[in-house]
Amino acid sequence: MSGSKLSEDTSSAKPEGSDHVLGLTVYDLPEPSQALADETRRTRVGRWKMIAVLLVSAAPVIASYFTYYVIRPEGRRNFGELIDPQRPLPEMLGLDLEGRTHQLSELKGQWLLVSVGSGSCSEVCTQQLYFQRQLRESLGKEKDRLDRVWLVNDMQAIPAELQPGLKDATVLRVPAEELARWLAPASGHDIGEHLYVVDPMGNWMMRFPARLDIETAAKAKRDLERLMRASSSWDKAGR
After folding, report:
1. Sign (positive or negative) of CA dihedral 115, 117, 119, 124
2. Which of 7, 29, 166, 220 lies at 20 to 30 Å from 173 by C-alpha?
3. Under 8 Å between Cβ of 195 and 206
4. How many Å apart are CA 135 and CA 138, to the nearest integer?
5. Which residues pair with 93 in a beta bridge?
């Protein structure tokens, strides 16, 4: 039995050196045009997904601005002038009072109430800094969502009597010509006669009328309160 099996196996074996046929499975390769179309489709889908994510993230911001700018009763006009189009905070440098360099973009992440003036600070400048401080304090528990910023547009020394009132403010020296490419006064006024409002994304979006007084400061306060309410769903204190 075993001898018969051995003989069978030997007779069926191929001679040494004979060719062996390899079994290959051949798959169709995609046409170049089809591969390009597939890649284009995947890229398009990826872009739409990214846009959808950005829209979802920005929805609260868009909604709050829509509420503030569009859906408001006729009798509830802004006291401050809305800036259209808004002007984004530029990439420029400022020096703090210790001489250290800062990018102005570091100010993003908070609402800003901005004043501008010479370091020597005239009577108008002093009054603007006073109302700037009072407006922030008047917001009560919401005041931590708004920072005071004084942009000094020259290298004049700051009077010692102003220092105590500036301890909670950000003070930066910025060249006047660079500053003028971002903020601008109303026609017929100086840049230092206004207070300017910048949103947490770094956009200058409102300018209060020149030379606030007790009566007009109360109207500016109402604008700030509305901004705080409209943005409360997405803006929190601290950067």
Report:
1. negative
2. 220
3. no
4. 5
5. 103
Closest listed residue to residue 226, CA positions, set 201, 209, 206, 211: 206
Residue 198 CA to residue 8 CA, distance in Å, equals 95
Cβ pair 212, 80 in contact under 8 A: no
- Whole-number Å distance between alpha carbons of 222 and 78: 9
What pLDDT shows up at residue 64? 55
Greatest C-alpha distance within the chain: 123
The model's pLDDT over 161-205, given as tens digits with 9 standing for 90+, comes to 999 999 899 999 999 999 999 999 999 999 999 999 999 999 999
pLDDT above 90: percentage of residues in the chain? 63
List the structure tokens of 35.
């591969």
DSSP state of 14: P
Whether the per-residue pLDDT at 101 is higher than 60: the answer is yes
Residues 166, 168, 169, 172, CA torsion sign = positive
Strand-strand pairing, 111-117 and 146-152: parallel
Question: DSSP E strands: which ranges in the chain?
Answer: 81-88, 93-95, 101-103, 111-117, 146-152, 170-173, 195-198, 203-207
**Cβ–Cβ under 8 Å, residues 196 and 206:** yes
pTM: 0.71
For strands 203-207 and 81-88, give the pairing: antiparallel
